[in-house]
Amino acid sequence: MPYVVTEPCIGTKDKACVAVCPVECFYEGEDQLYINPEECIDCGLCVPECPVDAIFADDEVPEKWASFTEKNVSVFSGDAPPQKAVPNS
Ligand code: SF4
């Protein structure tokens, strides 16, 4: 099950997650980061790194943020897919 970035990332985009992901599957959109579900290897390393607790396994996403699971998939097939996220230096 891929991991999903949810609402707390909007306006935060801390990017501590980007630095620890072993497969570099974080992408940066205008308002938030996304995890490419085709690339995520479900290691969970990013979860404790997020200062706003925005990342969940897709079967543990809180109900109020359920729409983010689909958003993390559909954004990659949209008109302006997010670009590969660059870690903070
Ligand atoms: Fe990357 Fe692992 Fe987080 Fe998936 S669960 S986004 S592979 S750090």
Relevant terms:
2 helices, Alpha-Beta Plaits, binds iron/sulfur cluster, three-stranded antiparallel β-sheet, 89 residues
Commentary on this structure:
A hairpin with a 4-residue loop joins strand 2 and strand 3. This protein is α+β, with helices and mostly antiparallel strands. A three-stranded antiparallel β-sheet has the order 3-2-5, with no helix packed on it. A two-stranded antiparallel sheet has the order 1-4. The mean pLDDT is 96. It has a single domain, classed as Alpha-Beta Plaits.
**CATH structural fold name:** Alpha-Beta Plaits
Cα Rg: 11 Å
Shape from CA axes? globular
Identify low-pLDDT runs: none
> What is the mean pLDDT?
96
User: What distance separates the N and C termini?
Assistant: 29 Å
User: Structural class of the secondary structure composition?
Assistant: alpha+beta
Beta percentage is 15-25%
Helix amount: 10-25%
The structural domain count equals 1
Bound molecules: iron/sulfur cluster
Number of strands: 5
Total DSSP helices: 2
- CATH level-1 class: Alpha Beta
Main beta-sheet strand count, sense and barrel state: 3 strands, antiparallel
Strand order in space, largest sheet? 3-2-5
- Please write the string of helix (H) and strand (E) elements: EHEEEHE
CATH architecture: 2-Layer Sandwich
